[in-house]
Amino acid sequence: MSATLYGVGVGPGDPELITIKAYKTIEHAQTIAIPSAKDTCMAYHIARQLIPELEQKTILEIPMPMTKDTAILEESHKKGTDMIAKELKQHHNVVFLTLGDPTIYSTYIYIHKSIHALGYSTCIINGIPSFCAAAAALNTGLVEKDQPLIVIPSSYPVENLLTQKGTKVLMKSGRKLPYVKEALKSQALQAVMVENCTMTNEIQYRSLDEIPDNAGYYSLIIAKEDAVNT
Amino acid sequence: MSATLYGVGVGPGDPELITIKAYKTIEHAQTIAIPSAKDTCMAYHIARQLIPELEQKTILEIPMPMTKDTAILEESHKKGTDMIAKELKQHHNVVFLTLGDPTIYSTYIYIHKSIHALGYSTCIINGIPSFCAAAAALNTGLVEKDQPLIVIPSSYPVENLLTQKGTKVLMKSGRKLPYVKEALKSQALQAVMVENCTMTNEIQYRSLDEIPDNAGYYSLIIAKEDAVNT
């Protein structure tokens, strides 16, 4: 019997935004991989609130440093792949917890690809993406009718896409906020921001003027064609 | 005590992709609104597989015709708003079921806005968007690193955004497939398609050449910068 690596999205923060499928997959697993140490891992913290038995499971702490240094990243992905492959080789399924959805800017996807390349079975179980949760927290929709939805990561030059029609979502802008705010202003776009969406420390900023110059890593800006508020 | 309209996303098709929060909200509700007749309503069909007690609840069938005729749409939204407001006025919470996520191209959002404008309390409970589920079904990620995610609805001219960097998702292309395929070819983009994602009749098309000229309404194309398959 061959074992499987499950990449499971735990959603944006509220433990009840975990799907039934993710819940069952985590509950049945014996070995759980997480992308940092237990104490600091947001995905682990979210899942544990729903599934306290997580504390009795084997936890593989995979070092996933937040860096753009390719050499460091490759080394940590290789180490993570080795740790997980060792478990799979012993026919233990592994459940890798990741914040939001595994298909959207997740660190999990690198491990997924390398484990898949080694010939092991892999499976993605979706979570609620942070931008959907941010719109819900603001009690508004993201896109309607013929509006495109354009999600822009912080490392991409935002000007290239801000001129396009539709709703723009700027992910993880945290330290780049002065630049992002300037770019939005120059396009005469209105915007709102949600920090730590659905977490207990969620903060909403209802206009571009309210948005500060510095915010945490889990900050997300929504700029709509029309007014954002319903 | 005032009543609330809950817009609840049931995800793409697999009932287990419903979140714990959506499950509890549906389970506790007495009045359920659905965007068509019970027999043909996909969102009702999905939720009922997980929550058979749905059959004992009061079901409001809100007519939501699939048309671009503004007069017909406005009339049906007005009728739906009246039906729901009548329940809220009697202090009955209403749970409106919608496919995928309520913030992304959902018919629910029009009712949400008009009920909110009448001064009633409204609440959005997220579901897994179809494009995340399609990537998971293909066992691949959607976006990594600095790649933007560009979601394009079928009614938008796709050429305007296909030249942009990042992953392009083309929603509900069904009857426009010959035009969409031509536009993708002219940009030398590779693409895959998932029809009826996570439903029992899911079909995957692994290359542009495999994609037929006609497909059902729930068809979704993913065009990535690099090869889509892991």
As an assembly, this protein is homodimer
Largest sheet, strands/sense/barrel of chain A: 5 strands, parallel
Output the helix-strand order of chain A: EHEHEHEHEHEHEHEEE
Strand content of chain A: 15-25%
Low-confidence stretches of chain A: none
Number of strands of chain A: 10
Distance between the termini of chain A: 53 Å
Helix proportion range of chain A: 25-40%
Sum up the overall morphology of chain A in one term.
elongated
- Largest sheet: spatial strand order of chain A: 3-2-4-1-5
Radius of gyration of chain A: 19 Å
Mean pLDDT of chain A, as a whole number?
Answer: 94
Largest interface, Cβ cutoff 8 Å: A-B, 59 and 59 residues
Category by helix and strand content of chain A = alpha/beta
The number of helices of chain A is 7
Q: Can you walk me through this structure?
A:
With 230 residues, chain A is an alpha/beta fold. Chain A has seven helices and ten strands. In chain A, the strands form two sheets. Chain A has a five-stranded parallel sheet with strand order 3-2-4-1-5, with helices on both faces. In chain A, strands 6-7-10-8-9 form a five-stranded mixed sheet, covered by helices on one side. In chain A, strand 2 (31-34), helix 2 and strand 3 form a beta-alpha-beta unit. In chain A, helix 3 (70-89) packs across helix 4 (108-117). The mean pLDDT of chain A is 94. At the A-B interface, helix 1, helix 4, strand 5, helix 5 and strand 6 of A face helix 1, helix 4, strand 5, helix 5 and strand 6 of B.
